[in-house]
Amino acid sequence: QVQLVESGGGLVQAGGSLRLSCAASGGTFSRYAMGWFRQAPGKEREFVEAISASGRTRYADSVKGRATISRDNAKNTVALHMNNLTPEDTAVYYCATDTNWLGALPPVTPNFYDYWGQGTQVTVAS
């Protein structure tokens, strides 16, 4: 069993920046792909960014160029950094891990991820 706990959400002004952190426990963190997803009210959960066990990254087009994902295997954490926030970034942000993924690039489909955090609310005020 893997447990994931997100932190760092809250109210952010448009144009500002965001840093979320996800702490993992259980399992072997360094072997897992990690991803960030978000879900806005009335919308489906969508991919934001992900990082493979080897450190390769993928980003959604909506955040490409203004978001980064990083991992610290010594601390079992993964972080999301995003700048130039807009109200469209308002959502509950979820950390997830795919403990079985063997591909070079991390998966972008939520169904591949087998453990999820509880989520953290991010609200961007205009």
General description of the model:
This protein has 126 residues and is an all-beta fold. Helices cover 0% and strands 48% of the residues. The chain contains no helices and 11 strands. Strand 5 and strand 6 (57-59) form a beta hairpin. It has strands at residues 3-7, 10-13, 18-25, 33-39, 46-51, 57-59, 67-72, 77-82, 91-98, 115-116, 120-125. The radius of gyration is 13 Å and the shape is globular. The strands form 2 sheets. Strands 2, 4, 5, 6, 9, 10 and 11 form a 7-stranded mixed sheet that branches. Strands 1-3-8-7 form a 4-stranded antiparallel sheet, with no helix packed on it.
Write the layout of secondary structure elements.
Layout: E1 3-7, E2 10-13, E3 18-25, E4 33-39, E5 46-51, E6 57-59, E7 67-72, E8 77-82, E9 91-98, E10 115-116, E11 120-125
The low-confidence runs, each spanning 5 or more residues with pLDDT under 50, are none
CA-atom Rg in angstroms: 13 Å
Mean pLDDT: 96
With helices defined by DSSP (H or I, 4 residues minimum), what is the helix count?
0
The amount of beta strand, in percent, is over 45%
End-to-end Cα distance, whole Å, is 40 Å
Give the structural class.
mainly beta
- The count of DSSP E runs of length 2 or more, i.e. the number of strands, is 11
Sheet having the most strands: 7 strands, mixed
